[in-house]
Amino acid sequence: MKNELYDPRPVEYPFPKDTAAHYLVVKKNNGAVFDKDYPYVDRSRRMRFKQAVTRVLLNIVAFPLARVRMGLRIKGRKNLKTHKKELEKGFVSCCNHVHMWDYICVMRALRPVKPYLLAWAKNVRGENGALMRLVRAIPIPESDPHGLAAMNSALGGIFRDSGSLHIYPEGSMWEYYRPVRPFRTGMAYIACKNGVPVLPFAFSYRRPGFVRRKIFRQKALFTLNVGEPVFADRTLGREEMRVDLTERCHSAVCRLAGFEEGENIYPHVYGNSVRIDYYPIEKAEK
């Protein structure tokens, strides 16, 4: 078990002070406008065909490559079968966001379910935007309330069709970061509004062997842990219910990532949370 709780302690990434902030630079802007007329869920025949082809390529190329490149192991998939009845009418899934390819791992774990992904608008406009749309990414409108209403309406359609939506409630990707950062409450808002459970996932790390570590310079191997669905407490008021669900989902992700209760260094809920430097940068393993 000790091997499963490895901490890569990365030093090369400029993690921001704000735990929800991005440090990746998106160079391209394709000019897409995410307003009330944008097709957040594109059901056109052309898009469905391209997504089907992409799915085939994922199974043939991307999923096996992720297993090799990341040393991916998936634990707890039996929970998908055990809780099939609770999940069959739709669900939100969540996870800590720790690698550029971690959504590929989530898709592999969920198959044959084909989830949608709630994504940072800049990424959908950026150099990987076309590919993200092919794996069902839905951009979050940044400053258009009418666009946000249209997006929420599209999300409602996903759940009416018993679909699933993956969300990264930490708000951004921090590569190889071990602690689970605070969760924004938007994920719980979507789950509560649409009456669906949240299925937690969590990445933990394993120490690479000599060849991967010394020759390929691999910082860590990945284990994706699948949890059990978490349900909203409908006896609570709207705001209290959202916070409570966020806290319990964060606790579930922490447990799946290998933390004992109260051991994770961050609070459950985001509140302009600041990065905690829990190890000296100059002494971190490289």
The CATH topology name reads Glycerol-3-phosphate (1)-acyltransferase
Report the uncertain regions: none
Strand tally: 7
Tell me the strand order in the biggest sheet. Answer: 1-7-6-2-5-3-4
Main CATH class: Alpha Beta
* Structural class by SSE content: alpha/beta
Report the CATH architecture.
3-Layer(aba) Sandwich
Summarize this structure as a short list of keywords or feature phrases.
286 residues; 7 strands
Tell me the layout of helices and strands.
Elements: H1 45-70, E1 73-75, H2 78-82, H3 84-87, E2 91-94, H4 102-110, E3 116-119, H5 121-125, H6 129-134, E4 137-139, H7 145-160, E5 164-167, H8 186-194, E6 198-206, H9 210-215, E7 221-226, H10 238-256
Parallel strand pairs: 1-7, 2-5, 2-6, 3-4, 3-5
Antiparallel strand pairs: 6-7
Helix pairs in contact: 8-10
Q: What do these coordinates show?
A:
With 286 residues, this protein is α/β, with parallel strands linked by helices. It has one domain: Glycerol-3-phosphate (1)-acyltransferase. 37% of the residues lie in helices and 12% in strands. The chain contains ten helices and seven strands. A seven-stranded mixed beta sheet has the order 1-7-6-2-5-3-4, sandwiched between helices. α8 crosses α10. The radius of gyration is 19 Å and the shape is globular. The model has no long low-confidence stretch (mean pLDDT 95).
